[in-house]
Amino acid sequence: MLETMRDRGKFWTPVPDWTTARIERDGLSVRRIAGLGQMLISGDLRGAVAGLAPGVSEIGLWSLAEADSYFVRSARDRGLLVTPAPQHVAPGWREGYVATPCDDAYAVLELAGSGLAEMVAEATSVDLEAGSRSAAVLFAGVTVFLYRTAPSTARLHVESPMASYLWKWLDER
After folding, report:
1. Superfamily of segment(s) 22-171
2. What string of pLDDT tens digits covers the 173 residues of the chain?
3. Which InterPro entries does the entry mention (predicted)?
4. What are phi and psi of 63, to 5 degrees?
């Protein structure tokens, strides 16, 4: 078993040095965004957002986030509150909802440039123009939250253990 663990590089995608990792080519750039606050919310979403980040807008699939803080819907009663920096909120139940800080649970990859639409079309079969209240989508075979921060800039929140795989997939396209 120990020998198998030493050979894990044969089976697992190497983790890039996220501080310097960049993909630049063919009208597309990709980088990791670090330092955002991320908090999973379940239950009474309106109450949660009003209590934790009053005034933030809710965004869904391919929606445009027009502020630094926003709520990314992932299911009927679940979503991810994204803020410019981690919020220091204790996890747990409140008035009808549960809040779970998860600042490192999701890696955030930013894709930008004129090749964005082509890359997204290759990675997912969803009809972006139809949209959805939920930003959760299969992207290159893994579940991500997909939305935009500018007309030609998108963000993907992917579970951190899958970030290396997704990075390699993007790099090889």
Report:
1. Probable tRNA modification gtpase trme; domain 1 (3.30.1360.120)
2. 455 555 655 667 889 999 999 999 989 999 999 999 999 999 999 999 999 999 999 999 999 999 999 999 999 999 999 999 999 999 999 999 999 999 999 999 999 999 999 999 999 999 998 989 999 999 999 999 999 999 999 999 999 999 999 999 999 98
3. TrmE/GcvT-like
4. -70, 160
Which candidate, 38, 44, 64, 55, places its Cα nearest to that of 154? 64
The residue among 170, 150, 149 whose CA lies nearest residue 158 is 170
Domain boundaries, the chain: 22-171
Q: How far apart are CA 76 and CA 158, in angstroms?
A: 19
